[in-house]
Amino acid sequence: MLTPEHLHALQNLPLAARQAAEGFLHGQHLSRRKGAGMEFSQYRPYQPGDDLRRLDWRLAARSDRYYLRESEVDTSLTVHLVLDATASMNHPDDNGLTKLDYARLLLAALAYLATQQGDAVGLTILHPAGLRHLPPRADARQLPRLYHALETAEAAGTFPSAEVLAPLTARRQRALTICVSDMYESGTEIEGLLTRLRATSGEVLLLHLMARNELEFSFRGAVTFEDLETGRRLQLNADQQRAAWQQQLQEWLRDTARQARRHGFDYHQLSTAAPFTQALREFLRRRVAG
User: Fold this and answer.
1) pLDDT in tens, the chain (290 residues)
2) Cα–chain center distance at 107
3) What is the pTM of this model?
């Protein structure tokens, strides 16, 4: 599988999504159900109320018995992709990718993969100016819509207010919600939104995205850090503060994971330097389990 840097270098989101996901489809055994699809599976006896269009009339003429042709079709699912597009997602890693760059590529690959499974896919981009929401659809034009929304998404400001978010949870609709966020919040607004989505929609897969230079604290010497959402600045010596930073970071990551799992989210931490393998695998695992 290509690295995130190579995929980003293509400067073509549809192509990058396809290349990231296609190899992952090979050898996967998908959950299937009986239905009226195209691939023949077996016969079963006719029962009152069955669709007569599925009756095998030739077999009935030969045997004087009435059977329906059953087929296998892929189980389908509604997938709700959620992108945190607050200003902290503009943080760049040492490989040149921002968190937003990585999230775009990852969500595009997930959208492609879900579409290949016949799933209805929707997208919500969380932005303080308002939500950009594409309702879930399974038609052929949905994937280009999703790509365009992701390509034009910009990260800015802080997390949307409760009033802005209210339409997302106003309607109950069973779905697998997949949220990509760095989980930087002033209170518990991200956790609160995902808790409400879990209550109204069902499963939540939280992909907690961190830059590798944050995780490893690869900075050297005197550094000025700026909070991208508040503008506050902090000057420190990175070499002197590395041990304390990493200790506090690990404590925060443990607390974040523990809280997410306590609320029933399927939580996974990702690095902007890592391939998309884990996230794609978790999607397929949740899809089969559902």
Assistant:
1) 679 999 999 999 999 999 999 867 654 444 333 433 334 446 667 666 666 666 677 777 777 777 766 554 445 799 999 999 999 999 999 989 999 999 999 999 999 999 988 899 999 999 887 889 999 999 889 999 999 999 999 999 999 988 889 888 888 889 999 999 999 988 899 999 999 999 999 999 999 999 999 999 999 999 999 888 888 999 999 999 999 999 999 999 999 999 999 999 999 999 999 989 889 988 888 776 66
2) 5
3) 0.82
Q: How far apart are CA 260 and CA 273, in angstroms?
A: 23
CA dihedral sign of residues 169, 172, 173, 178: positive
Calpha distance 31→257 (Å, rounded): 29
Token pair in block for residue 56: 């095998």
Task: Provide the 8-state DSSP code for 98.
Answer: B
Which residue, chain included where needed, has tokens 């443990």? 254
Please name the residue that has the structure tokens 């269009």: 53
Cα separation, 89 vs 228, whole angstroms: 9
Ordered by start, the domain boundaries in the chain are: 4-28+77-289, 32-74
Structure tokens at 87: 């200003």
Which CATH architecture best describes the domain 4-28+77-289?
3-Layer(aba) Sandwich (3.40)
